[in-house]
Amino acid sequence: MDIVVVGSCNTDFSSYVSHLPLKGETLTGHKFETGFGGKGANQCIAAVKLGARTAMVGKLGDDIFGDQYFNSMRANNVNCTHLKQVGGASSGVASIFVGDDGSNCIVIVPGANNLLDANDVADAEDLIKSSKLVVCQNEIPQETTLAALKLAKKHGVKTIFNPAPAQKDFDPELFKVPDFFCPNETEACHILQIFSTNKTLIFASLLLNQLVNDPETAMTAARQLVETRGCNSVIITLGEKGAVYLAGKDAEPEHIPTSPVRAVDTTGAGDSFIGSLAFFMTTRPDLPIEEMIKRAGQIAAESVQKPGTQKSFPFASDLPSHILA
After folding, report:
1. What Pfam families does its record include (predicted)?
2. Which of 144, 254, 265, 300 is the most exposed place for a label (fewest CB within 10 A)?
3. Is 111 a known ligand-binding residue?
4. How much is the pTM?
């Protein structure tokens, strides 16, 4: 097995509108569709569509949405040995609004995702220890994510943690255990919105003003994540502005640009990036990490030019041959 993803599965309900609704505003949309989402499953599908051997550890409700999701994952050749349907909770759902400019806002109801626990991770130990990489996000209980990251570390398996959606009360070990800590600019901003105890507020004020939005401020944020949170290495994605990579405490952050494209729907772009990065880490290990990040960004840019989430992720055959070489 190349990749084991421990994370969420959600059914997406996407409404396409002229602009994102304001508080109290009612809009008439021009398109609606359902699809398969959830950050964990998205990243799993992004990797498997490129050709990685991928497994999913997760939970679905024992309902029609769970039935449909399970069948979809199997149809995509995902190893579903540890993807379980359980009673007592609905399958996870996400209500998504997509503006004509490609921007989006999302409300998630986790449902059965919140029932995934450390015992489920322990049950998947043989699968995890036989893999090359474990990928986690923040749409399941933190203790479950931490259990998966620690189990992978115990067996010498590399790990990626994508702290999305972001929150301010992360367990400190979630910064220190994973090999790669991979937020986007907004998530990095939220995570670091904490006043220092000595009342030095310059950096906190910078973040509170939502200024992690270009390579320079992302480099500052990456340094903070390494120096004050103990991250081993950091990749901060910046959408059309590329990404910033910091290899560790004694390294200098690097900006890795990408080519801007006209976005149709940015939903799932970060998941496309993480899944693609996981693909390169496990199937092209001789590539420099900077090149892996560059190519993952190119694949994510391909995905935003189509509507939808998982269905927008390209297959290997959809991409120029040089990207996967």
Report:
1. PfkB (PF00294)
2. 254
3. no
4. 0.90
